[in-house]
Batch of 2 targets.
Target 1
Amino acid sequence: MTAIARDLAPARPRPGARQRLAAWVDRWGLAVYTVAAVAYLLMPIAVMIAFSFNEQVGKFNYQWHAFSLAAWLNPFGRPGMESAIITSLQIAFISTLVATALGTLIAVSLTRYQFPGRSATNLFIFLPMATPEIVMGASLLTLFVNTAQAPFDAIIPKGLLFPLGFNTILIAHIMFNISYVVVTVKARMAGFDRRLEEAAMDLGANEWTTFWRVTFPLIFPGILAAALLAFSLSIDDFVVTNFTSGLTNTFPIWVWGSIRNSLPVQINVVGTMIFGAAVLLVLGSTLLQRRGH
Amino acid sequence: MPEIDVRLVDVTKRFGPDVIAVDRINLEVRDGEFFSLLGPSGCGKTTTLRMIGGFEEPTSGLIELQGQDVTWLPPYRRNVNTVFQNYALFPHLSIYENVAFGLRRRRVPDREIRNRVTEMLQLVELPGYEKRRPSQLSGGQAQRVALARALINRPAVLLLDEPLGALDLKLRKQMQVELKRIQQEVGITFIYVTHDQEEAMTMSDRIAVMSAGHYEQLGTPEELYERPTTRFVAGFLGVSNMLRATRLGEDGAYALVEVVGGSRVRVPRDRFDGRVEVEVGVRPEKIRMLASDAEVPAQLNRLPGRVAHASYMGVSTQYIVQVADQADLTVYEQNVERTVEGSIHRQGEAVTLAWMPEHTFVIRDAGAATGAEPD
């Protein structure tokens, strides 16, 4: 009803409470809902950041005491924390690198070539994502322990897979990361125009040059997104790592271990740092992707 | 004798056991020629082109480029370049880098690349577009860049896969003229794939009309239009009037045939291959339409008929004339003598159709009356 039509309409009794509520919802409903949803998503992060500026009183950082920069000035000042963070970064970095390289090759061949076992491979790639993490962790533990026993101990070098530690965490992370990389890169490959590769070959580029000059630059945003995803999955993985870490501490394992007798402010500080780095990376990759189009 | 640039010997391409895309094609494309593969979609023309380019391997047969067997060579080892249907410009590279791509692969010095790219962009009338991205170009401009990117490598043969298919009609006409100009300027052999008969006719030196994996007839546009030898070619290139005919005997340089309604028509004798039951055809614009009582010169073929339908088309009028209550013939008459009052010939009017015996062609595959009706 237009404004004029409303004015010309015979005078009606004042709208009741119901109508006024309906009008209000009509006008503000979406905004309120949006704000509430975003707040719901961001609240834990806001709390984490706020409490990284808390003053440490007692062992647990559960209650607000006073604003303090102490933790930020000494972010790794807890026994074992620094080495745990370094281990986490190392594993995240190496597993991302290996999983991205392998996963990209798998994704390219799955979308590009027809070969026996292709659909089976497609299915198997999904399995690690579909399997409950705790089941995967437990079975990895069983697997690694068994490699130290006959007959496998004869072939597998001692100390490679058992006792558990850096190597086993790394292998586990590479494994689940590959699945995520394949799925992400495959999505990018789906929209890839094969004629661009034909055009490159037509212009004198062999398969190798064609891949590096045409295919790779065009699917790079997908590869980058996959690498970011892999990195973030690895750096905060707890369940699988807990089964495969032995005596080695990653940051999440260290937090879990320390939480029984203390919850230092530094955990929030490191959490905030990781969050900040992630935001920067995502922003950077979004900008890159936008430039690519 | 001009040199042969591309030779296809018994080339066959199968996709799986049941699909024969190309069926034992033999072709010779001459040096410097504008050669077209013309046919409806699915006739195997693009597959043929892709095999010459190296993107498909033939199931059997031989492909020679300037005397060299290239049947099993990858695309990057062949001295041919391709203009792809939807251009296939590299979206992540500038126009300059797109055009320079082939030269960079051959490690041509930067300075020479710069000169040749500039020269090439001038040839396709896009100077100053070096820094743009493919996404910033219109269809016609992208088409020119694709052409420049291929031609800059000075290939022995340029392959063009329906390059104008995505352009609107006006731009297409303009690009046809331009393509022909560029081809004459660079003197490179062009092999052009299209389903558009008019496009093929305007540009080509020779055309192979393809259907179902082989070519029906190969010749100059004029030969194909004036003397089609198969029903398919007669119907695909322009409009044809076809009549069943029985050969009766000879009359000097002509053969005498009987057509619908017992009328007799003369056809140049050398167009027959010895069969008695054939189909003869004549193009609509070759037929003169006269009043039924008019004097007709003796050397012309003639058929009595009745105007069934007349439609005014601006430059010409199209008549459908029924002959002996059996066959409908299409006749085009230029509107030069048209009076302001209306049609020269009216519906229902009795007329005589007359044409020169030389304009009568003979279909050699009269048995295969498959589709391809005049449109």
Target 2
Amino acid sequence: MAGGNGHEHTKWVMVIDLDKCNGCNACVTACAMENNVAFTGEEENAYGRGMHWLRVIRYWEGEWPNVRVRYMPMMCQQCSNAPCEPVCPVFATLHSEAEELNIQVYNRCIGTRYCANNCPYIARTFNWFDYEWPEPLNFHLNPDVTVRRRGIMEKCTFCIQRINQGEEQAAAEGREVRDGEIQPACAQACPTEAIVFGNWQDPNSKVRQLAQSQRGFKYLHELGTEPKVIYLASEKHDF
Amino acid sequence: MYGGYQGRYEPKTFVALYDDLDPATQALDVLREMGIEDRFIQVQSGVPWRPDLLGRPARPSAVSKYALIGAFLGFLSAIALYYGTPLLYPLYVGGQPLLSVPPGFIVIFELTMLGMLIASFLGVFFESLLPPVVGKRVYHPEVSDGAIAIFFQVPGHLAERVKQALSQTGAIEIEPAEGTFL
Amino acid sequence: MHATNLPAELHEQVEKLRKEHLLLDPRPREEMNRMVLEAMEDVNREYFIVMVLLGLVTLVALFGAWGYAMYKGLGVAGIRRPIYWGLFIVSFVFWIGISHAGTFVSAILRVFKAEFRRPFTRAAELMTTFGLAGAGLFPLIHLGRTWRFYWMVPYPNQRWLWPNFHSPLVWDFLAINTYLLGSTMYLFLPLIPDLAMARDKSTGWRKILYTILSLGWRGTEEEWRHLQKAIQIFAWAIIPVMFSVHTIVSWDFAVAMKLGWHSTIFGPYFVIGALLSGISAVGFILYMIRVSMKNMRYFIRAEHFDALGKLLLIISMSWAYFFFNEFILEWYGGEHTVKEILRLYTQGAVAPVWWTMVVCNIVVPWAVLWNKNWRRKPWVMALMGVIVNIGMFAERYVIVTGALSRNRIPFDWGWYEPSLVEISIAVGTFALFFFLYGLASRLIPLIPVWEVEEGHHAHELKRMGKGVVVSVAELE
């Protein structure tokens, strides 16, 4: 299933083992810290205005007391055929040929929010207001990532700043990027190592190995969006 | 004081006003019989009368040519925008090809129609030479009240005879007019 | 009209026909001019108060709230994940729908030479122009960064960027621009002779205004020929443009990978919906004109409401047909998410709105419009205009916000309620529309006098057997 067609050009791939995910939300926090994701506050967040680039979907199953919960971290799937891209009138979101990712150009966005409506993964978030970081969080801002202002869309970038940094580092040292050298914040923070990130073109990479698993699937694969996140189904559930 | 020999032949412009189509067409017949060519006659009316009802030469309007040219220009600009601009700075979206035919139809349709509409609109004014920039043109405000105004130019020495003949046709008024036909 | 040599015993029949039909009841052109100008120049106290109020509401409710939204950010609207489009887009689609009235009534009826159109083509065309003025604001209002809207305009710029012609929003931009420019020119062309009439008959600042606007029109054979040719071209060409506009608006939804939106019938379904709201709105506007402006009872009569009512009934039936098509096929397909969406519509929280739509768009029009006596009552048609437009607003509300609140990931289902700012802006656009319309009603002759006179010339009463019949000559 995973790793089938449409992957000739794929570079960066994420594998998420749902069996290992315990819903701790460390990835959500790490993502927010790394990417200067705004804190919208309790009230706004409850209203559905949370800015999370990555969220952990939670489903309760069964009747009490036989309840089981399952988690599914969900973020931008970096689709090869991204539905969000063609609908943007100003090319604010588009396919980057260098990284083979779906990128969002903040200063080009005019805020039609069409991309967000057209994303089957509901992966995009919108800057409803200009947000301020409460003390002392304003000191943590990552200088490698743009701070977004009101009225524009944003979404998971696969921590593209880390990818670029890693590639530059490797190039400066005259070598290939080592597997596992580049890690997005979520993968780095995951205590159970449920999130693995790597280069698809490297036949020995960990992602490539994991993707061979029979548990592998791409979420909403039937839509033909060609996501670059491969989930490994938890044993009792199929999505 | 009468002018000299030259002045007598100087063309003079008059207007005859009619309140209905029948006397107006009759008057046009009279004018023609008196040897005044169609190009020295102009009819103004508050509603459009078909040339054949008036008995006047019918010429097709050139506005349709404007429409065609405008449509063509619109079509070209659509091609340039839809198939040209992506080549200037190729950006790929949604796994779609840079240039594709079906969505192009939409852009081509809209801009072709836009070109056509703008050109026919402007065509009306170019062809009728409106708005007037220089010179005064003949006009009678009674036209707004539904009168049919027949303007004609006659050599000065014939003016009285023509007026005489027209007075038989039931004109409300025959008076001198000032300005060019255009 | 010439009703000469009709025997005296037919007099009663003739009088009845005259009373019924404007085009059989000719008055001298001079008098009609005076009537139209009198209506136009009648700026009384009530008018002034209403206009000031409308202007204030526009200023505060529309532009004030819009400015506030720009200053604070779009968060002041009620939209939230995953319902990223709300009342702004609903209003946008609604006003685009209203704008279809003018073109349909004026262009299609002109092409088919439907004579009853004559007195109210302009009143309907004005609705197109001002409907588009309202509609055109919403794509700007709903932008996160309104001040960057011009990035959608294709022009060579320092950013080296052209708009993305793959995007339905750019198609929208092109289509709406074409329609706005086209319909404004189409409004202006038949207006020129009437402006020239106003120029000849008015004094003071109006004289100066109409001298400029009428562009030196004299009514020569040449001018008429070119004008008529152009009107003919416009009447034909604007019809496909009109269809394309609402089709493309529907494609904003239909091209999306969104269940409840991705439907192949959306194009014609939206077009017919636009006609439904537009035509019923014409009935409302004609009623307003008739009761609030001088001398309009002569020009706008029961026959016109009757004709509009028939048209409305047909359109309502067509709408019901498309609606049923859309609904039953989605429902029958049985996809989970789609079923959830339809359940939300029919039984869920959106149900009151959805059933309002069904009642206002189908039940009420069918119950009322079959009856000729009701169709002929102006206030009934005005009421239909209000009811059907409530129904059509509800339809757009259901489609835009209802479908967005259900998606393929149940964890991310949502619910939308418009905020005060959104409601204020939506209401403000109504004020804007009526303000502009009120302004125009006192600035331009609302009745195309020359077209009415042409109609008078074309109609003739003829004796046939024991009765009188109407015969219409083709003068164009």
